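The methods section describes the discrete structure representation at length, but only in general terms. What matters is that the chain and its backbone geometry are given together, residue for residue. Nothing conveys this as quickly as seeing an actual entry. For illustration, here is how one protein appears when written out as sequence plus structure tokens:
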Amino acid sequence: MIDPLSEVIALLRPRTVFTKGISGAGRWGIRYTDFGQPSFCTVVEGRCRLAVDGEATVTLEAGDFVLLPATPGFTMTGFEPVTPLHIDPKVGPAPAGEVRHGRRGGRPDVRLLGGYFLFDSPDAGLLVSLLPRLIHVRGADRLATLVGLLRDESGGKRPGRELVLSRLIELLLIESLRATQSKDASPGLLRGLGDARLATAIRLMHGDPARAWTVAELGRKAALSRSAFFDRFTRAVGVPPMEYLLGWRMALAKDLLRRGEAGLADVAERVGYGSASTFSTAFSRHVGQPPGRYARQAAAA
């Protein structure tokens, strides 16, 4: 059976990881500016507050896991009033050891293990838009284990390090996203997959992207009327069904063009276009440049 979530993660091609220990004691607070890359943390012990821009403030406790797929600006503090220290994550070298905030001596009030990684795909913006802005999982023992493995592997120089890191990141993403897959999730792919009827339609689109799907046909497959399916899909996923299908087709086309394993006519056929010229027109409109030029630039890069 086609697994849309796994397909999205595979196209994102996560790689490279940086991890660090973080602790806070007494009166402390930090304000990170927008980073744009995915970041994560797990709470080893203690408690703190996290306020992500555009989201409600949450209290993090020991065992909690947080993933920010695009890391907007956020503030992390203890429980005493404080003016946060501003930090730009894009400026300055990465710290070598644990980062301590607030009171320097004594036992910390909270200890966290955090880090970030990168997505290799130039379609990361499109694909990340299908994921929640903030993923907060409570009692995440499996995720904490993965973060510990990431820290251990990233700190060494063992053979196969990059492959192991990329696989661990994929596992971290899938495990954290699984934990938030429900009808109550933020609009996006996870919420759509949390709806059994919509999940049927999403799997069909991913399983046969070249098929000339219509809203009416997908609605019938999901046992819904055309209008009910359109409204339900748009509310849950955040975009109309045909817009989602177009975005997925173009993401697949870009991946095929980057890899250079298929000619233009073959790429067009694989993503549902009857001719190379029709595909080229649609691709140029969606991407902003013809597929041939996109493939050449990708090869040069």
